[in-house]
Amino acid sequence: MATTRIMKHRSSSGKAAIHTLRDRLDYGKDADKTGAGDLIRSYECDHETADAEFMLSKAKYLAITGRQQKRDADVLCYQIRQSFEPGEVTPEQALEIGYELAMRWTKGDHAFIVATHTDRRHIHNHIYYNSTTLDCTHKFRDFLGSARALRRLSDLICIENDLSVIVDPKQKSKGKYKHYGEWLYSEKKVSAKVNLIVDIQDKMREGKGPGYAKWATIFNLKQMAAALQYLQENDLLVYDDLAAKAEAATERYHDAGTTLKQTETAMKRNADLKAAIVDYARTRPVFEEYKAKKYSNKFLAEHEADIAVHRAAQAAIRELLSGEKLPKMDDLKAEWQSLAASKKSGYADYRAAQKEMREIISVKANIDHMLGLSGREKNKEIER
Fold this sequence. Notes:
- The protein is 55% helix and 10% strand.
- Residues 171-194 and 375-384 have low confidence and may be disordered.
- The chain folds into two domains: 2-142, BirA Bifunctional Protein, domain 2 (2-Layer Sandwich); 242-371.
- The protein is built from eleven helices and seven strands.
- Strand 4 and strand 5 (124-130) form a beta hairpin.
- The longest helix is centred in the last third of the chain and has 54 residues, at 239-292.
- The protein is α+β, with helices and mostly antiparallel strands.
């Protein structure tokens, strides 16, 4: 169960950038807090000289791009603080998880160091990554929602490593909503609303029972991590809510498919009617002459193909209209354009509904297997 926080480090007032950076990194690398330096890992830099390497990359960035920020706006490095539930991880596990978080967060494009501190009741990581990319052509830009994205990634990695996560980071307490990080020392009271995730995490920690054994032969921990995250992000913290959402998503998918089929049927009718009208008009002079000749067998033999087309077109129009008035060709063309637009938007709705349904059906299947419900909770077979 880890909490996360992301911070920007700029030049301190009255200090050179290199001194500010060195002070920040030295705090993280403190030997007394990192097991004499044994709990430090680095990527694409030497943690002993990371401050100088970070600054060198910034000089290269300026030379390559010609871009230079004002001193008070330039971010020297970013820091991620990741704190774990007391007693849930060893220092070595925390270091590995911190390294994986840094690698996946930066996508391997930024040098970083990870220092695991053990000087407090809770083990925690200090992750420092260079704001400048390894190729010195770009800089990391903090973005709207980065804190949430970081927490989401940290939670995912924790679940993949069989650790618990905070199931409700905004649980109301004493009239105030707690910040995610404040959970570290708070009394974690879990309401009935979050029982589903708690049950799943307990089942995963047990690692036994027929439900888990059956699930473990088919799925993997990463799939369950994604399923748990889906539940949290969609506020599906009660099993009945999950089941209801799955049923609603399936119904939306079928409704979208039905609507799309109706539009396609209308388009086929429109196309068939236009084709029949064209064939009727094209062959009408021949058929009128055939009538004028009192249905002469000789004339029929000479123009049999056109007469057959005319009769078929006449029959098709009669069947397609079912007694309705024959519409004008311009009206049929306008109708086609409207139907084509409806099909385009309808197909987009259908694909979105299909994606939503498949996602939640997959999540529910994973949850059912984990909780041993697959025997009595059968997912409906989905067919278009």
